[in-house]
Design a protein that fits this description.
Layout: H1 10-38, H2 45-51, H3 58-83, H4 95-127, H5 133-141, H6 143-181
Length: 182
């Protein structure tokens, strides 16, 4: 009896997707701090800017931004996992398909969520100098570079998430085959 990826349970897909999203989120975690450094901003500025619209300042804004970013990554992975089981065409059956599906997913999230949030919330916040003037002005001057870098990071996130998901579902499918063979 052969078992395929499509026979994985909804719960298993949700679990694998959530973990895959977190793996993708951690994969770009360090890069975000490197971007802060390369822009001459203090460490954690990206995450601080995410926390400021919530009315939080200082280190708490940075921590809030970090947690929110990782929760978003977990949610993206969870939805990715659910989506992979909706139709046979969406099934992640190979590393290549996982990478491509992850990249497409991350590009959609970039265009539908990241760009509007950046354009209508973050940039106006920076322009109003809600954070220290030096950081705000440095970020505004580098906004085009930030957007390009963010696009690249979303692609890396998606690729890592998709490949991790593909490896994990293949592993779980193999375990399912072995369990049904006994």
């Amino acid at each position: 009896m052969t078992t395929t990826v499509s026979q994985l349970s909804f719960t298993k897909r949700v679990q694998i997707g959530c973990v895959a999203g977190l793996v993708g989120g951690f994969a770009i975690f360090v890069s975000i701090f490197v971007i802060d450094l390369s822009l001459g901003a203090s460490q954690g500025t990206f995450y601080k800017v995410v926390g400021l619209p919530a009315g939080i300042a200082g280190i708490y804004a940075t921590l809030f931004g970090m947690v929110l970013h990782m929760l978003t990554a977990a949610l993206m992975g969870t939805i990715f996992g659910i989506g992979s089981g909706i139709h046979k065409l969406l099934e992640i059956s190979s590393l290549k398909k996982g990478a491509v599906a992850g990249i497409v997913t991350s590009l959609v999230v970039f265009l539908v969520f990241f760009m509007p949030i950046s354009t209508f919330l973050i940039i106006p916040l920076l322009q109003s100098s809600a954070i220290e003037l030096g950081e705000a002005s440095q970020l505004l001057v580098s906004m085009e570079l930030i957007m390009i870098g963010s696009l690249e990071l979303h692609v890396v996130f998606g690729m890592v998430m998709g490949i991790f998901f593909a490896v994990a579902v293949q592993h779980e499918s193999k375990k399912l085959v072995e369990a049904t063979a006994v």
